[in-house]
TrEMBL record:
InterPro entries: Asp_de-COase-like_dom_sf (IPR009010), BFD-like_2Fe2S-bd_dom (IPR007419), BFD-like_2Fe2S-bd_dom_sf (IPR041854), CT_Nitrate-R-NapA-like (IPR041957), MoPterin_dinucl-bd_dom (IPR006657), Mopterin_OxRdtase (IPR006656), Mopterin_OxRdtase_4Fe-4S_dom (IPR006963), MopterinOxRdtase_cofactor_BS (IPR027467). Its cofactor is Mo-bis(molybdopterin guanine dinucleotide); [4Fe-4S] cluster. SMART domains: Molybdop_Fe4S4. GO terms for molecular function: 4 iron, 4 sulfur cluster binding; metal ion binding; molybdopterin cofactor binding; oxidoreductase activity. It comes from Paramagnetospirillum marisnigri. Residues 2-59 form the 4Fe-4S Mo/W bis-MGD-type domain. One of its GO terms (biological process) is cellular respiration. This is Nitrate reductase. Keywords: 4Fe-4S, Iron, Iron-sulfur, Metal-binding, Molybdenum, Nitrate assimilation, Oxidoreductase.
Length: 853
């Protein structure tokens, strides 16, 4: 019998509806976009469409593990409860902490927060949303009196001007961005302005791109505010005056304006001020709460919003209440809490500092990888290593963070877990399980409730399932609310959880969601008015200097998610950006002796990383960009968080992750290599390596400073047994070898003298075959594919696997001039559309070449 389950994508805050279906019990599950989900109407980006490539059980944590050994749930849970209780008894409630995540479901988050703030009696629960959304939360609260996202996705389609500030939505919120582009196709007069120091894929689609000096957004928006009020203002932010004049006049003249922002604004030591400088421009013009307009923060994680709703941030309580006396009392009564926290706890950066100083002695980390994602990641690791008791709940067995845990608890992953999430437009959707719980993995809500009960709080945590938790959360949002708080889900208290359809909060009456807030002009400050916060622009905490002359900006690539624990499993997703890279302006590359595709060592004050150089004229000179996705599991040294000092916004506590002074120099290598292997390979740390997923193998790119005895090293890495086919050219320093066992290809190693983007796809394909026979074997070490040199190719369209050279050839051979024509011929860009901005850039590049020729 065929089965269809409606659920929600576990990646970005767009919150796309997903349908998982299989034809019969024996068939494979297939995911597609849910045509009825109001976030995506059937669309998915490439990450969403490859979800089934990421749900395998390889590498999953399937049993609790204590000090590296498998234990039963009872002993694991008892251990957490005992250790936390003993620490609290001896050192007080503030000596323990939870560090949680916007990738938990609302129900998980709710019980974690309830346990810490109501029963342990400390505010020490913070979340990775501190690194993500906290400046927006603080900015909202200052301006509106509540953490409210005013608008909805439809506003973006109905606007006449959409301004994206510090947002690479083309890659990070692809389906919303596609909705914007589709609206622009219908109404070409819809104008798009992108404000980002880099020429991103998003900027590629803009009518106007302001490549401002990083950190100068508040100068720009203060200038805009002055312009809107009819004052003269001098605006210096590193772009030509005409561009600023154009932007200001477009904004002033266009009633229906939406301003979208994300991490280019939030991740800053003045993030809260920047958020308010944007909101001010909407308040001055009254452009808020009405169709087609409003300030709009795009949230990152699938449940960043849900976490804010239940009080996952150390400085919030629950249900959008703060730590004022009345709220503490109200929540305490609602929970019949024995020991309410009465003041905010430590924010992420301070929390880990407290761990390093021994003030926090028991730490429970859930659904986040702080050993990679926090600034000063090197110090975070040291802090964890020194902490007397670290628990990590994760789906994966081996993450940089899990390696530092005393106790590892196996959590259910997407497809297995059950609960709700809230997307960027306040829409609550269900995540529903369709896969069986593997091994002994359990839902996070269950794990937390079990610990709570073993700490003696059983009655308050005796939940039969997530539905019960959700209803309690809804009741709390409505408890003594009477219109005083924005978050009100009382209309969902009696809802049928199993069939709950996507709905935007507040839901005050059953079945009635709310698309837009503040339509009545009433806000949540006591006087019901909004506040325009006076903002004095401040520069970033650290500027370029003679020792660290470049500014490192960090962020995301199109097809990977954070620390790659899930997207890293998909070969299709790996193709777009297989290596950790450093985008650098050609002039800077020349200045620091870096060639395209060579390796660079990038150093901060305490640590360095080795990254592949990618020349990029879209970088501003003096600034480089590196993705955040690589860890010690996937590269020899590419954790960019260890290059960044943890300077934080004084209001929000959000760290400045987009602006770190660094130094770059060539990483001089005597050899470069590519290794493909069916089995895991342990590589030494003193060489450069990075690892990517292949179909039935992994691919490592390698480089090292010293020449090697290759036949011996090859056997060390790939295994000695079986049959070896080798080719050694000592003069040129080339070595190529393949290892087969019973005719089946197990591994290959290619060594060159020079850096190369050599990508042996014919060899990769050979891993899919049962046996490689006769003459064919020689092609494995041939250094070029049978039948000629295709060279290497960069994947542009991950959905249909269309490479750069095919697109270039189609442009030349058929005189194609638009993404639509290329789509018609090659299919590239016709599924999720995420690569359309790149296709545009390729078209522009080719026509520029033609003009030059
Ligand atoms: N593919 C993919 N998508 C994702 C994620 C992922 O890991 N991969 N993660 C999700 C999460 S959790 C988040 S938070 C979002 C993040 O989504 P975004 O914020 O859109 O992504 P980032 O790449 O972090 O940064 C956005 C842009 O800020 C720019 N920027 C840096 N400094 C400044 C500045 O001073 N001013 C301005 N105006 N811009 C600046 C950067 O150049 C960058 O292009 O993405 C979500 N979506
Ligand atoms: N330099 C720099 N650093 C950054 C950023 C940046 O732009 N620049 N961005 C910051 C931002 S915005 C974010 S959001 C963070 C993200 O950073 P992290 O949260 O550290 O990154 P993830 O890889 O998403 O980690 C999630 C972990 O939870 C596990 N997991 C997934 N689902 C579940 C579940 O249901 N239960 C449990 N228990 N575990 C689960 C995954 O396997 C993974 O190990 O990075 C921040 N760090
Ligand atoms: S845009 Fe992509 S990653 Fe984001 S929710 Fe939709 S399918 Fe998932
Ligand atoms: Mo995020």
């Amino acid at each position: 019998m065929s089965t269809t389950i409606r659920t929600t994508c576990p990646y970005c805050g767009v919150g796309c509806g997903v349908i998982a279906a299989r034809p019969d019990e024996a068939g494979d599950w297939v995911v597609t976009g849910d045509p009825d989900h109001p976030a995506n109407f059937g669309k998915l980006c490439v990450k969403g469409s490859t979800l089934m490539e990421t749900v395998g059980l390889d590498g999953r944590l399937l049993h609790p593990e204590m000090d590296g050994r498998r234990v039963g749930w009872d002993s694991a849970l008892d251990r957490v409860a005992e250790q936390f209780s003993a620490t609290i008894a001896e050192h007080g409630p503030d000596s323990v902490a939870f560090y949680v995540s916007g990738q938990l479901l609302t129900e998980d988050y709710y019980v974690a927060n309830k346990l810490m703030k109501g029963f342990i009696g400390s505010g020490n629960i913070d979340t990775n949303s501190r690194l993500c959304m906290s400046s927006t939360v603080a900015g909202h609260v200052r301006a509106f009196g509540s953490d409210t996202v005013p608008g909805c996705y439809e506003d973006i389609e109905q606007a006449d001007l959409v301004v994206l500030v510090g947002s690479n939505a083309a890659w990070c919120h692809p389906v919303v961005f596609q909705r914007l582009l589709a609206a622009k196709t219908r109404r070409p007069e819809l104008c798009i302005v992108v404000i980002d120091p880099r020429r991103t894929a998003t900027a590629e689609c803009a009518d106007l791109h302001l490549a401002i000096r990083p950190g100068s957004d508040a100068v720009l928006f203060n200038g805009l505010a002055a312009h809107l009020k009819g004052e003269e203002a001098e605006v210096e932010c590193g772009v030509p005056l005409e561009q600023i004049v154009t932007f200001f006049s477009w904004f002033a003249e266009t009633e229906k304006t939406v301003t979208l922002w994300s991490q280019g604004i939030n991740q800053s030591t003045s993030g809260t001020d920047k958020v308010d400088s944007i909101i001010n421009c909407h308040l001055i013009t009254g452009r808020i709460g009405r169709p087609g307009m409003g300030p709009f923060s795009l949230t990152g994680q699938p449940n960043a919003m849900g976490g804010r709703e239940v009080g996952g941030l150390a400085n919030m309580l629950a249900a959008h209440m703060g730590f004022d006396e009345a709220s503490v009392d109200r929540v305490g009564r609602f929970w019949t809490a024995p020991r309410m926290a009465t003041r905010p706890g430590l924010k992420a950066v301070d929390l880990f500092r407290a761990v390093s100083e021994g003030r926090i002695k028991a730490l429970w980390i859930m659904a986040t990888n702080p050993a990679v994602s926090l600034p000063e990641a090197d110090l975070v690791r040291a802090a964890m290593a020194a902490c007397p008791f670290v628990v990590v709940s994760d789906c994966e067995a081996d993450t940089d963070t899990a390696r530092l845990a005393h106790l590892r608890l196996p959590a259910l992953a997407w497809g297995e877990k059950d609960g709700t999430v809230t997307n960027s437009e306040r829409r609550i959707s269900r995540q529903r399980p369709f896969l069986p719980a593997p091994g002994e993995a359990r839902g996070d809500w269950w794990i937390i409730s079990q610990v709570a009960s073993r700490m003696g709080f059983g009655e308050a945590f005796a939940y039969a399932g997530p539905g019960e938790i959700f209803r309690e959360h809804c009741r709390l949002t409505g408890f003594e609310n009477q219109g005083s708080r924005d978050l009100d889900l009382s209309g969902l208290e009696d809802t049928d959880y199993a069939t709950l359809a996507p709905i935007q909060w507040p839901v005050r009456q059953p079945g009635r969601g709310t698309a837009r807030m503040f339509a009545d002009g009433r806000f949540y400050h006591a006087d019901r008015k909004a506040r325009r916060v006076e903002v004095t622009p401040r520069p970033p905490a650290a500027l370029a200097n003679p020792e660290f002359p470049l500014i490192l900006n960090t962020g995301r690539t199109r097809d990977q998610w954070h620390t790659m624990t899930r997207t890293g499993r998909s070969p299709r997703l790996a193709a777009h950006a297989p290596e950790p890279s450093l985008a650098i302006h050609p002039a800077d590359a020349a200045r620091f002796g870096l060639a395209d595709n060579a390796l660079a060592r990038v150093s901060g004050r305490r640590a360095s990383a080795v990254l592949r150089v990618a020349l990029d004229a879209g970088q501003r000179p003096g600034e480089v960009f590196a993705p955040i996705h690589w860890t010690d599991r996937t590269a020899s040294g590419a954790v960019v968080g260890s290059l960044i000092d943890a300077a934080v916004d004084p209001v929000s506590g959000q760290p400045e992750l987009k602006h770190a002074p660094v130094r770059v120099e060539p990483f001089t290598a005597a050899w470069h290599g590519v290794l493909l292997s069916r089995e895991a390979v342990e590589l030494p740390r003193d060489i450069y390596w990075s690892k990517a997923a292949g179909q039935s193998h992994s691919i490592w790119r390698l480089a090292g400073a010293q020449g090697q005895d290759w036949p011996r090293i090859g056997r060390d890495w790939l295994g000695d047994s079986g049959e070896w086919i080798e080719f050694l050219d000592p003069n040129r320093g080339h070595y190529r070898a393949a290892r087969l066992v019973d005719g089946r290809l197990e591994g290959v190693l290619f060594i060159f003298r020079w850096a190369t983007d050599f990508s042996p796809d014919w060899v990769a394909a050979a891993f899919g075959r049962a046996a490689i026979l006769g003459e064919e074997r020689a092609t494995l070490v041939a250094g070029a594919p049978p039948g000629g040199d295709r060279g290497s190719d960069k994947t542009v369209c991950a959905c249909f696997q269309v490479g750069l050279s095919a697109i270039r050839a189609a442009i030349h051979d058929h005189g194609l001039t638009s993404p639509a024509e290329i789509g018609a011929m090659l299919k590239a860009g016709t599924n999720c559309g995420s690569c359309v901005p790149e296709i545009r850039a390729i078209l522009a590049g080719e026509s520029a070449k033609e003009r030059a020729a």
